[in-house]
């Protein structure tokens, strides 16, 4: 069986070309700015790796033999391609033209995401947008499958990851609009006593956060309905089958239900807020991260919050900040 030869070392290949052009190892050493010994070692290693002699050493000066001439004919395109690849990688990295792989939790991707894409669409920036749950996005960031992630949980265990607080939103109680319309002095305590809590699944970060907050408030409700997404959750709420605890951004994500629901404030507490963070690796994508932070806050302040406040006038002040 013919042995598999290792890939050609590009530095050794440069040394080989220099010897052929200069006519000697001394001349090649001067051309490349290295010692003659380094040239000799590179040529020797190249011949050992390829299993052939590349020069006719009986001629003075040494000339490439048949194998050497074959390699010389192929070497130029190889070196040129390697230099082109190196230049393009360097240019793209320094100019910031590499496509940015941005991962966002679903509620952010479905609400703020389109505005971000629209805002950068006129520039040369290329963006690939992923959506998912915080645990999956965090793993993708660690595995370098994402460049920037917007999550609702921090990753303080990894010192290489920069965590920038982006914004915060308050949990609110959500109920069918006709429920408070038919009664007076309805608050979240009434809901907790009279209606079942329709939950987000515990496998999601928001589901875990809602559960902790509900326990903090003393809400004890049997687990009957659980959903991964806000859409089906609000469909049951709008039908009067229970109440939910959600956030302004989640409500805006499923805004076709806003005419059918009402919100009631919940007690202000640290557990009663969901925080968003922008995560990226230290020293990478700093300018893009700053751009995303500015754009996000602008979209929330000037677009999403005013629309939410009009649709749900009982949203408490500071529910989105």
UniProtKB/TrEMBL annotation:
It comes from the Bacteria. Keywords: DNA-binding, Plasmid, Transcription, Transcription regulation. CDD domains: PBP2_LTTR_substrate (cd05466). GO terms for cellular component: cytosol. GO terms for molecular function: DNA binding; DNA-binding transcription factor activity. This is LysR family transcriptional regulator. InterPro entries: HTH-type_LysR_regulators, LysR_HTH_N, LysR_subst-bd, WH-like_DNA-bd_sf, WH_DNA-bd_sf. Belongs to the LysR transcriptional regulatory family. It comes from Paraburkholderia sprentiae WSM5005. Residues 8-65 form the HTH lysR-type domain.
